[in-house]
Specification:
Elements (H helix, E strand, L loop, with lengths): L11 H16 L4 E4 L4 E4 L5 H11 L8 E4 L14 H9 L6 E5 L6 H4 L4 E6 L3 H10 L3 E5 L11 H8 L5 E2 L13 E3 L5 E3 L1
Parallel strand pairs: 1-7, 3-5, 4-8
Antiparallel strand pairs: 1-2, 2-6, 3-6, 4-5, 8-9
C-alpha cells in the first residue's frame, strides 16, 4: 500500500481500535468512512434501509442509481446475486479479491434501496486489508460509495475525509486508500462489457 499521508501513520493498536469502533458503528446502524483500493469509501450495513437512506442524503445521491456492496468472502455477496453462466462466474471469481467490480443480476434478496431502478447489483470482493478486516469482523458485506459529495472528486486521504465528514460519520479509519489511482473499473457479469473504466 502506498502511504500518502504527510503525518506519521497510525500504529497497530490505533488501527485495531479504529476498526473495532467502525464495526461497532456499523452494527449500531451508523455510517463510517474507510479506505478502499483506489479511493476512500463511505459505508453502512446494506440491510439497514434507514442507514442507507442517511448515506444517500449525505452523498446527495439519488437512490435510483443504486449502490455497490463489497465483502471479503464470496458468502458475503452470494445471496444477493442472481445466476450467471458457469464460465463467466469462474472468470469473475478468478479476478477476486481485487479492484474489480462486477454487475450481476440481482436476486430477490437484494433490496430496492441497494439496486435502485436496476434489476442488477454491483459487488466486489476487495483485496484492501482494511476492508477485509472490517467485513470479516462484521461477518458480512457493506455498502461502498466514494467519499465525496455528488459531482465532486473522490477523496483518497483519511485526513481530508475527516475534515469533510467528521460531523456526519460515526468513524473514520485512519489509513489512506490503496494504489489504484481511481475508482474501481466496473464490468457486466453476463456480457463482460465495460461499464466504467
Amino acid at each position: 500500500m502506498v502511504n500518502r499521508q504527510t503525518s506519521a501513520p497510525p500504529n497497530t493498536a490505533t488501527l485495531t481500535s479504529a476498526i473495532q469502533a467502525a464495526c461497532d458503528a456499523l452494527q449500531a446502524g451508523q455510517i463510517i468512512a474507510y479506505p478502499t483500493e483506489g479511493v476512500f469509501g463511505l459505508g453502512c450495513r446494506w440491510q439497514d434501509q434507514a442507514a442507507v437512506q442517511r448515506l444517500l442524503a449525505l452523498k446527495q445521491r439519488p437512490v435510483s442509481k443504486g449502490l455497490i456492496i463489497i465483502g471479503s468472502q464470496w458468502a458475503h455477496l452470494s445471496t444477493l446475486l442472481g445466476a450467471v453462466p458457469a464460465a463467466q462466474l469462474a472468470q469473475i471469481k478468478a479476478s477476486w479479491p481485487g479492484p474489480i467490480t462486477w454487475v450481476f443480476p440481482a436476486s430477490k434478496a437484494a433490496p430496492a434501496w441497494i439496486t435502485g431502478d436496476h434489476s442488477t447489483i454491483a459487488v466486489r470482493l476487495s483485496a484492501h486489508p482494511i476492508v477485509q478486516l472490517l467485513c470479516d469482523s462484521l461477518g458480512q458485506g457493506i455498502v461502498s460509495t466514494s467519499a465525496n459529495l455528488a459531482g465532486e472528486p473522490p477523496m483518497r486521504a483519511w485526513q481530508t475525509v475527516q475534515q469533510q465528514f467528521a460531523s456526519q460519520v460515526a468513524a473514520v479509519i485512519p489509513e489512506d486508500a490503496g494504489q489504484l489511482e481511481q475508482s474501481t473499473p466496473i464490468y457486466d457479469a453476463i456480457t463482460g462489457q465495460t461499464l466504467r473504466q
